[in-house]
Amino acid sequence: xxxxxxxxxxxxxxxxxxxxxxxxxxxxxxxxxxxxxxxxxxxxxxxxxxxxxxxxxxxxxxxxxxxxxxxxxxxxxxxxxxxxxxxxxxxxxxxxxxxxxxxxxxxxxxxxxxxxxxxxxxxxxxxxxxxxxxxxxxxxxxxxxxx
Amino acid sequence: xxxxxxxxxxxxxxxxxxxxxxxxxxxxxxxxxxxxxxxxxxxxxxxxxxxxxxxxxxxxxxxxxxxxxxxxxxxxxxxxxxxxxxxxxxxxxxxxxxxxxxxxxxxxxxxxxxxxxxxxxxxxxxxxxxxxxxxxxxxxxxxxxxx
Amino acid sequence: xxxxxxxxxxxxxxxxxxxxxxxxxxxxxxxxxxxxxxxxxxxxxxxxxxxxxxxxxxxxxxxxxxxxxxxxxxxxxxxxxxxxxxxxxxxxxxxxxxxxxxxxxxxxxxxxxxxxxxxxxxxxxxxxxxxxxxxxxxxxxxxxxxx
Lengths: 147, 147, 147
What we know:
Three copies of one chain form a homotrimer. The termini of chain A are close together. By secondary structure, chain A is α+β, with helices and mostly antiparallel strands. The relative contact order of chain A is 0.39. The first copy, chain A, has three helices and eight strands. At the A-C interface, β3, β4, α2, β5 and β8 of A face β3, α3, β5 and β8 of C.
C-alpha cells in the first residue's frame, strides 16, 4: 500500500483558460509505482476547477463563452463591493462570477488506476480550469493504491 | 492502514444556508490519527450539496441569489405536483429547484490528507449547502490512510 | 486491504436518459467482500455524468427539461461546426450542449462504504446520466477498503 502526494503547478496565462493535465497525472502514477488504486485531484484555489472532459479547442471556447454568459463578470455581486469587505488583499480582483462558475464546474475529481493506467475513456482528459487568472496555481494530487 | 468513518451532523436554520465544516473535518483527521491519505465527504440528502469554496459572507449571499435565480422555487416543475406523485411523505415540500441546484453544486468532495493536514488552499473551506431547510442533515465522511 | 475494479455497462435507449445504478454498485461491494472503505465512480465518456440524487420519475423529467433549456442543443456552438474541426469520427453528432451539461453535473462521485453498505441517505440513488445517446456506455468503479 502506498500513498504518493504531489502538487501540480500551472502558471496560467489568461483570465479564463483551460489546461490539459492528463499527462502530468499519468506520469505521476508511473513515478509512484502504483498499479491499482485511485487518484484524488483537487484545486487549491476558489476560482479554479478540476474537470474531466474533451480537450477539443473549439469546445473549450464554447465552455468559456457559455459559463461567462451564465455568470458574467461585473458589478452585480455583493462580493465585488470591495470597499464593504474586511481584510481584502491589496490586489483583490472583482471575481465573484469566477467563484460561482468554479462551484458549478467542481473542485475535485476522483479517478481509478487499473494496471498502472488512469482509467479514462478515449475522449477524456483531466482539465484544469482557470477562471480568474493569470496566476500561479496548484492542484493537490493523492495517488493511493497497491504496487 | 486505517479507515475512520464518521457522520457530521448539521441542524440547518434556514431554507437556504451555507455552513463551513472545515474545522470538523480537520478535527476528525486528528482524531483518526491518519497522517497521509484521503477524505471522502458526501451529503446524505438529495437537496443539499458539499462544495469547497471561500467562506466570505457576501460571496455566500451571491451564491444564494445566483442559484435561486437560475433555478427558482415554485410551481414550474413536475416534481412539485405533489398530488400526481406516489408515496409522498406527509410533510413533503415543493423542492424540485433544490434537487436541481444540488446536482449542479455536487454531492461529494474528495480531498488529500498530507502530514496530518487537510490539503486546502488559503482561501478554501469545506462548505455544506442546505437548499431545502431547515432540517437535521448529515455528511458521510470516510478518512482513509496511513498513521 | 483490497482493490476491486469493475466497469458498469449501460446500453442507453434515448438521447437524454437517466439510469439508477445504485443496485449495481451495492452488488459490486458485496462481490468485493469489502466492509469498510470507499467507492469511486466515474463516467468514461465526455457527454455523460454520474450524480447522486433522487430517483423520482417526475423529478428526472424536470432535470431533463431544466438542463436542455439552460444549454440547448443546436447550432450555437463552435464545437458543432463539424466542417471546421480536425479528425472528426464519421458519426460525430452535434453535441456541444451535452459536453457542457456533463461538466455542470459532474464526471465522478465518491462515496463511503461502512459495514459493507454504500452510505447513501434514504432518498439517494446513484444516477448515470446519458446526454448524447443512445450509445453503449461504461462507468469505472474502484472499490477500495478492508475486508
